[in-house]
Write a structure and sequence with these properties.
alpha/beta, Rossmann fold, 6-stranded parallel β-sheet, 15 helices, 17 strands, elongated
C-alpha cells in the first residue's frame, strides 16, 4: 500500500477528502479549527511537493444549497493556516469545479464547496462519484471522522484510483493509535466508557471484553447496571428494557476474567440541574428524588487507581454532566489521571468521542494524553471491531 510520506505529488492534482465539518457561529466565524489543523500535515506535504491539493468536505447537514453551509466561510482561515493561495469552487462537480482546478497552479489549494449539497454524496451515486474522481490524479483520504460512512467521497471514489490511493497523515495516525490501543502486547489494558445509554455502547463493551483487563463504566449508563442488580437508583436515568443485557455483560466479564468497575458512589441532584447543589450517595442506594449526575469521590479514587496501574487506556465518554460546574469533578479527575499516567507512568492513553474530546479540551489536557481521536462514530465502530468503508477502500 502506498505511504503518503513516500509519494511525490509534484504536478499532481491530489483529490483529498478532509473533515472540515467545523463549528461556525452566527457570523460564520470558526469557533474550533481542530479538524482543519489536523489536516495540515497532509495538505502541506502536497503543496510543498508542488502538487495541487483539491480539498473536498461536507459541512453540517444541508437540505439544499443553503449559504450557511457553504465552505466559502472557511476559505480565509484555510489561507491563514497554510499561507498559500486558496481557490474556492462554488460547486464540487461540473464546469465550475473543473475550471477552478484548471486555474490553480502547483503548490496551491482548491477548496470545493459542500459535498452534501448533493444527496448523491451520501447515497453513493455512481455518476456523482465519477464526476468527483475526474478532478484528480491521485486520491487521499484524510477524514477519519467520516471513514465509517460508505459515501461517494469517502469510499466509492477510491475504485477510480487503483495504484494512486492512500491514507493521509491524519487517517494513518488514527489507525496506528487505535491499533496500538487494541492490539498492543502491553498490559494491563483499561477501557473507560461513559455516556447516557448502555444500548449505545453495548457492541463496544462486548468487543473490548476480548481486549481489556479492566472496563470502567461511568456516566448515566452505569445506573442501568446498578438497577439491573437490584440497586436503588432514585431518579437516575436507567434503561429498564436493558436490564437483562446488563446482567449478561456482567456475567460475560466474570467469565472472561475482565474486571468490570462500576462507581460505588455518585454525586446527585434533585434533577438534571446545576442550581440545587449536590449530594453524595451510595450508587446502589440513591434516594427517591435524587438523580446521579457524576461519579462520587470514592468511585473517582477507585477509578484513578485502576488507570494509574494501566499500560494502555482507552477513554470514550464522560463520567458525568461535566458541562455543569457541580458535576464536572469526576470527568476532570479522569482526564487529569490519564494525563499523569501518560507523563509519569509511560501509559499509552487514547481519548475519543465528542464529549471526551470536549472534556480534555475544556480542562486543557489534550496535549498531555498520547492521542486524541478526531472521529466520534468512526472511533466507536473501530472499537466495536467493525471494518470501516473509508479505510477498507484504500486497503483493498
Amino acid at each position: 500500500m502506498i505511504k503518503i510520506a513516500d509519494y511525490d505529488f509534484s504536478n499532481k492534482k491530489a483529490l483529498v477528502r478532509v473533515d472540515f465539518n467545523v463549528p461556525l457561529d452566527a457570523d460564520f466565524n470558526i469557533t474550533d479549527d481542530t479538524r482543519m489543523s489536523a489536516a495540515l500535515p497532509t495538505i502541506n506535504k502536497i503543496v510543498a511537493d508542488g502538487g495541487i491539493a483539491i480539498l473536498m468536505s461536507h459541512l453540517g447537514r444541508p437540505k439544499e444549497k443553503e449559504h450557511k453551509f457553504s465552505l466559502e466561510h472557511i476559505c480565509a482561515h484555510l489561507h491563514h493556516l497554510t499561507n498559500v493561495n486558496v481557490h474556492f469552487a462554488d460547486d464540487c462537480i461540473g464546469e465550475v469545479a473543473k475550471t477552478t482546478v484548471a486555474n490553480a497552479q502547483p503548490g496551491e489549494i482548491v477548496l470545493l464547496n459542500n459535498l452534501r449539497y448533493y444527496k448523491e454524496e451520501t447515497a453513493g451515486e455512481i455518476n456523482f462519484t465519477k464526476q468527483l474522481a475526474e478532478l484528480g490524479d491521485v486520491y487521499v483520504n484524510d477524514a477519519f471522522g467520516t471513514a465509517h460512512r460508505a459515501h461517494a467521497s469517502t469510499a466509492l471514489i477510491a475504485q477510480y484510483f487503483e495504484g494512486n490511493k492512500m491514507f493521509g497523515f491524519l487517517l494513518q495516525n488514527e489507525i496506528d493509535a487505535l491499533e496500538k490501543a487494541l492490539n498492543s502486547s502491553a498490559k494491563p489494558v483499561t477501557a473507560i466508557l461513559g455516556g447516557a445509554k448502555v444500548s449505545d455502547k453495548v457492541a463496544v463493551i462486548e468487543n473490548l471484553m476480548n481486549k481489556a483487563d479492566n472496563i470502567i463504566i461511568g456516566g448515566a449508563m452505569a445506573y442501568t447496571f446498578m438497577a439491573a442488580q437490584g440497586g436503588k437508583t432514585g431518579n437516575s436515568l436507567v434503561e429498564e428494557d436493558k436490564f437483562e443485557l446488563a446482567k449478561s455483560l456482567i456475567a460475560k466479564a466474570d467469565e472472561l476474567g475482565v474486571k468490570l468497575h462500576l462507581p460505588v458512589d455518585s454525586n446527585c441532584a434533585p434533577g438534571f440541574t446545576n442550581d440545587e447543589g449536590s449530594e453524595v450517595h451510595d450508587s446502589m442506594n440513591i434516594p427517591d428524588g435524587q438523580m446521579g449526575l457524576d461519579i462520587g469521590p470514592k468511585a473517582t479514587a477507585a477509578f484513578q487507581n485502576v488507570i494509574n496501574n494501566s499500560a494502555i487506556v482507552i477513554w470514550n465518554g464522560p463520567m458525568g454532566v461535566f458541562e455543569f460546574s457541580n458535576f464536572l469533578q469526576g470527568t476532570k479527575a479522569i482526564a487529569e489521571t490519564c494525563a499523569s499516567a501518560t507523563k509519569n507512568n509511560g501509559a499509552f492513553t487514547l481519548v475519543g468521542g465528542g464529549d471526551s474530546v470536549a472534556a480534555v479540551n475544556k480542562f486543557e489536557l489534550a496535549d498531555e494524553v498520547s492521542y486524541v481521536s478526531t472521529g466520534g462514530g468512526a472511533m466507536l465502530e473501530y472499537l466495536e471491531g467493525k471494518a470501516l468503508p473509508g479505510i477498507e477502500a484504500i486497503r483493498n
